[in-house]
């Protein structure tokens, strides 16, 4: 491993993408274009997650947040929804050992009430098991929708005010952010969406207010660590202003 000084010297100037969020889209098209069921695409997509997770620490990424299932994805066929939920459970079971050994801390965001009790148990168990890990913070969004998350946070905020735990004048940005599912996460620096769609589909609307975006036509099952490395390298050339004037 390179010494700290050497790696600092090799690092280009400019912003670093420490928190990358990915809208993993295109699994269905990847499969149907080959005449295969959509679930085959989802399975291949899960394999890409494994490779991308492994690549993150070497690219300076400390936080990776991935969109696996949205609050709108319940509109899909029962077969696809059940297939995806089964896949999430299997992913957690098969990756628990590897993620723990790699030093990955796994968390989930999204509403849990609608998920099967068995899946919720698996999620809680792996969160507890990896809670002490610090190399990479992997957050998987399941039954996640930004509007749903904001509505839940607003309800908590209102409840705290009504119960006298929070003064109304303190009910500002920080108080709301502290009640989001992402309360323990920094805001994403870079949001990547695969599959060529140029929309955000209800992903992290609050947190990504100042994120940089990259849209790639690559379908998620074809997304590689090399493409991630190229996108992250491009990010360092961007100028982030956060509303300030050009230096
Ligand atoms: C993304 O791939 C995975 C999920 C939304 C669960 P899609 O299933 O949306 O794939 P396309 O967009 O139909 O190709
Ligand atoms: C966004 O993809 C959700 C996930 C990647 C989990 P979708 O395929 O559901 O988004 P739309 O329907 O194209 O906006
Ligand atoms: Mg899609």
What CATH calls the topology is Undecaprenyl pyrophosphate synthetase
With helices defined by DSSP (H or I, 4 residues minimum), what is the helix count? 8
Q: Identify every distinct bound molecule in the structure, by name, code or SMILES.
A: 3-methylbut-3-enyl trihydrogen diphosphate, magnesium ion
> At the fourth CATH level, what is the homologous superfamily?
Decaprenyl diphosphate synthase-like
The number of E-state strands comes to 6
Gyration radius from CA atoms, angstroms: 19 Å
**SSE pattern:** HEHHEHEHEHHEEH
| Distance N to C terminus | 35 Å
Kindly give the count of domains: 1
Summarize, please.
The chain has 247 residues and is of the alpha/beta class. The protein has helices spanning 4-10, 27-32, 38-55, 78-102, 117-129, 146-162, 173-177, 225-235, and strands spanning 19-23, 63-70, 104-109, 136-144, 190-193, 212-215. It has a 6-stranded parallel beta sheet, sandwiched between helices.
Describe this entry's structure for a reader.
This protein has one domain: Decaprenyl diphosphate synthase-like (Undecaprenyl pyrophosphate synthetase). Helix 3 (38-55) packs parallel to helix 4 (78-102) and helix 4 (78-102) runs parallel beside helix 5. Helix content is 41%, strand content 15%. The longest helix has 25 residues, at 78-102. Strand 3 (104-109), helix 5 and strand 4 form a beta-alpha-beta unit. The chain has 247 residues and is of the alpha/beta class. The chain has a 6-stranded parallel β-sheet with strand order 3-4-2-1-5-6, sandwiched between helices. It is built from 8 helices and 6 strands; from the N terminus they run αβααβαβαβααββα. It starts with a helix and ends in a 12-residue tail after the last helix. The structure holds 3-methylbut-3-enyl trihydrogen diphosphate (2 copies) and magnesium ion (MG). One 3-methylbut-3-enyl trihydrogen diphosphate binds at residues 24-29, 69, 73, 84, 195. One 3-methylbut-3-enyl trihydrogen diphosphate is lined by residues 23-25, 67-70, 72-73, 197, 199, 201.
